[in-house]
Structure prediction request, 155 residues.
Amino acid sequence: MTKQHKIQGFKFLFFAVLLFAFFNSCEKNEGSSIYKVWYLLELPKKFDANITYYSDKYAATGKLETIHITDTTYSPFQATLSENAGKINVWFASHLQKDRSLPYSIEAQFNDSTKFDFTGNKKYVMMVFANDTTLIDSVQFKPTFNKIKLEGKIP
Prediction:
């Protein structure tokens, strides 16, 4: 074997080792499935509500907590749900979960429905979204219902 053949063989072997190292060091990254679940509850002008929902704290500890909000303790956000709708006052929260089979859950209990404005037969809405854009569950209600609950699995 001549010196030139040895150099070419060494270059080929070096190149083959580099290709082998490159392809074996790369992992196929399929990403992780993380779902962001949003809860939205439309609130009347005057409200007193207890809200229980699966939060990030629930995902970490497995314990549900109920928050109590009133029109004097919580300033609702304003949202527009469609191009033709006016602004509504809402409470919203979200949490992240890795497993699609874990359920979503939100329950609202209105403590004093006598404070609500019943003129115009107004209905309110509770919604659950996944990953910011997909509406996965919703209900329209009148605050005369004592408890409203939505739960299920992410489709």
Summary: DSSP finds two helices and nine strands in the chain. The chain has a mean pLDDT of 79. Helices lie at 3-25, 56-61. The beta strands are 35-42, 48-53, 66-70, 77-79, 88-97, 103-110, 124-130, 134-141, 147-153.
